[in-house]
Amino acid sequence: MDWPHIVTARQFLATERGAIVRDWGGRLPIVLAYPNSYAVGMSSLAVHTLYRGLNALPGVACERTFAWFDQPLPPNAPLLTVESQKPVREAAVLAISVPFEMDYVNVVAMLRRVPVPVRAEERQEGDPLILLGGPAVSANPLPLAPIADAIVIGEAEPILGALVEVFRAGWARRRAETLEALAALPGVYVGALHDGHRPVQRLWLENLDEFPAATRIIAPRAEFGDMFLIEISRGCLRGCRFCLAGQWYRPMRERSLESILAQAQEGLRYLPKIGLVGAAVSDYSQIEALVARLREMGAAISVSSLRVHPLPMVLLDALAESGSRSLTLAPEAGSERLRRAIRKGVSHEHILYAAEAARGRFASLKLYFMIGLPGETDEDIEAIVQVVSEVVHIFQREVVVNVTPFVPKAHTPYQREAMAPAEVLEARIARLREGCRALHVIFRAEGLSEARLQGVLARGDRRVGEVLASLPVPTTRGLAQAIARAGLAMDDYLRARPEGAPLPWEFIQLGAPAAQGGEKAG
Fold it and tell me: pLDDT tens digits for 374-389?
């Protein structure tokens, strides 16, 4: 056994409150994995929600594992669970929540540490079933199709019970029969059995109140370990043309005020701060009443994201009074023309109003912009410098500008668009860095090589999946090199897709029933 790893797991477990430790005897052992650090994973409400939901089902023992705790582990370190430090190899199911494309290499690394064959077709009777889910892999499952036994497409809550029944029956079945049973469930994609043409309907939870999504385990070493997280809504009203989350979780749904307050009352028994989670917290229809009630309960408040507009003053006051030193806003583009084109719904006046509202309340203002958007010109880059200049003049304290390259994502209105050439992005980053330096503004830009790799994974096919599965040492740099060795050109995946040309992920159907207000991305 790997005693240092066991000791580390026990040390992290000792800091927690609320972990569920059960004897695996007679129970279905499911390991819930997050392909990144413990700190990031324990700040994911998907982990908390699935952990709560699976352990609530009769006869289930669900434990957690992560790609690493506080530092990367050796490639040969066995993958163990947090709760009982058991080898993941002994579980019936390894369910991995994969929210971001750049964690795909960590999925491969974790499977090698189980150890289990990375390719699904090479697994034998007795190997754990590998189940994947999450927005990125749901939107385009093909890059992980050679690796996963099955992939849940969409929101997993409605199907948890049915999945567990299939897994439980799998004890008396051959592996192939279990895969056939999984493929028969709505919203489940089994790459070994899918012909690439039969549609798979995204799973969608109509009533959020049926499944609480809040902190289940108090974990001080999580990124947001000082607050009790509560999802207040899912989806977004805006439908920005570049945003996968905004399209994937449509239509927007809200939790009732009563259910949120009940969860907050429970959370305040353990932590003094409530973290409100949603694609745009300020769009919650009862945000002012929610903030007022939380403050009456004595809660400090934090939020996952805010829109530039609307920006309720009662919420800004609550954030400042709760000790928040910075405010983060995402204008996305510098010119009003480009913001209209991407459906951002934010005017120049909205940005300046937000800067004025933040002044005196916060010590730092962080602005997020995207470059390389379809239709962007050099004038749009100059417009970013100009709007930042005006914000600096108004805010008069620390301003931080974060820049990320546009990456086209499946199922968004921009799914067919090209990613801007590297040389164009480099030149625009250089211009923004120069402009921000002159304004004494802190400037940060995402690495172009990782952004391009994200673009390949977001719109990749099974060939990319085969490259992933073959990685001897799973790293992002190693993946880029392996793609080249396989004779695949990254530019082929980053180019524009002509209208009408088939898309590899077309068999995934997003539309929710019309009666529920569903809208499919165009």
Answer: 999 999 999 999 999 9
